[in-house]
Design brief:
The structure is a homodimer. With about 325 residues, the first copy, chain A, is of the alpha/beta class. Chain A contains eleven helices and 17 strands. In chain A, strands 7-6-5-8-11 form a five-stranded parallel β-sheet, sandwiched between helices. A four-stranded antiparallel β-sheet of chain A has the order 1-2-3-4, covered by helices on one side. Chain A has a four-stranded mixed β-sheet with strand order 12-9-10-15, with helices on one face. The first copy, chain A, starts with a strand and ends in a 6-residue tail after the last helix.
Chain lengths: ~325, ~325
Amino acid sequence: MPTLNALGIRLANARIHLLDQQALPAEQHWLDATEPEVMIHAIQQLKVRGAPLIGVAAALCLGLYAQDHKGEELQRVAQALRAARPTAVNLMWAIDRLWACAPQTMLSEALLIFEEDIALCQAMGTYGATLIDDGDRILTHCNSGGLATAGIGTALGVIRTAWEQGKRLHVYVDETRPLLQGARLTAWELARLGIPYTLISDNMAAMLMAQGKINKVFLGADRVAANGDFANKIGTYSVAVNAHYHHLPFYPVAPYSTIDPTCATGAQIPIEERPPQEVRGASGSFGNVIWAPEQAPVYNPSFDITPVSLVTALVTDKGIWDQASLKTGLHCI
Amino acid sequence: MPTLNALGIRLANARIHLLDQQALPAEQHWLDATEPEVMIHAIQQLKVRGAPLIGVAAALCLGLYAQDHKGEELQRVAQALRAARPTAVNLMWAIDRLWACAPQTMLSEALLIFEEDIALCQAMGTYGATLIDDGDRILTHCNSGGLATAGIGTALGVIRTAWEQGKRLHVYVDETRPLLQGARLTAWELARLGIPYTLISDNMAAMLMAQGKINKVFLGADRVAANGDFANKIGTYSVAVNAHYHHLPFYPVAPYSTIDPTCATGAQIPIEERPPQEVRGASGSFGNVIWAPEQAPVYNPSFDITPVSLVTALVTDKGIWDQASLKTGLHCI
């Protein structure tokens, strides 16, 4: 049985452990999510998150489960894992890829996905870093780093690669309400890496753009439609509109597997709505706090859609697509 | 000694009580802020907030203090009150107005400011409501209601007036990070008034605009420059850019006294920066919680500047200024 070690997931002695991302940065708690029910709950509760890492984690879980289950039970678990997070196309892609294998080879296929994800991150980092200049002041949103993948990350992996190439950078981190992945996770990762950063509320980015303090945007993408529209963490679209207004380059970064040729445009991407409590307050290692009226009506979409017209270029592990090539149909390339 | 009763401030038996806006909505706690030191602390801690209400509260405080103090001591207190919140031009305007009076008439001048503020709100409400149609879906940011003034409010007073005229409305409330005045105060006021609303994270407004769920924006203004640029709660500028991109009318609402003819443009308006802890977490009746790394570097401007080019019209108690008349110089009208 192999051993795997990533920032957010570990495999050892046939057990999968997840770094509980809801408890970060105050606590570094590893959760045994080998059992499919625990893994599904961890995905739904965002204890494990980031489209690529969700795919890797679910694949490892199914691969281990396939070692001593088969038939209808294995199918039930595969379907339940596949449905745990409706917007995460990597999750469906990973489960489908395992499902095409014989049960006894599913685990090795999952290990392959893990290793591939590390390589994908390296490739995105190498391509994307060519878009970063010495002295850049980069805005990022949500978390697209080592905690979102098995490797160095997508957008944060690009930033890290440029930093390790010796380019001087400053990263502005959107806190990313309501779940605060920027404040909790991206800030923690950047501090670990020693990359200078400043944490801001999401609504401050526009002012920083107007002041010239931000000159580029790099962030992740959870699903890319065939025409280049993409879904990503709520707030991405507002960043895109602001970048467009201030004439700043705006780069989503995602593995090629994030492209969903079955979605012609962003309008076909389903948007998950999450519980109102998340907007009425916040949760973390400190517990749950509520600051709004207890019964306040809330709208809480997890993602929004950014049209391809606002995208400067999409960075993938297969290269960089500019807006013109995005519009002519990603799935053809 | 007169008695005054407003949503956020009361005067009775020569004592000023403030409804502690940091404790809302969980607790309705009235704070005795008759002593200048307590009032200054309350202004700095945002226990009393909203540019007009800060002016009213500080004026009442100075007016009462002038009843048994004079000379250098009175001047010291006037200067300290005037400096409590650097961006609030109404505060300086109110203190200067009292300072032009003899000490024994300062309190009656403060009472006049209180009564005038109620009338100003009514006038803004009446003018502004002409811009609202039956069925409108209005975005607002921060709190510009009864808790921000002595009367019905500025932008929220406009919404309330239209609602009481029988127009059907829905209000989308930006939670307004980092201090959450929307989630805590505006939601509470709208619930009290029975006006239908939905609370959102600040970064969701753009998506709602793209979906057609928001069709107008009304919000306050803390200081308006002579050319129509204005300072308001951080996040206002991002809303303005998004409204512009989606071709939606964008209306700041403020009393005429908010216009500062000494500021030629928004570039002359000083921007107050507040403590980093506010962005690293949140505070309220539940205490202080931190979700970011404890030493995370933070940028925390309290206000941003929206250029007049993004303003559809400014609503004041003296009428509605469209963009053309704003650009020709507000102070001339």
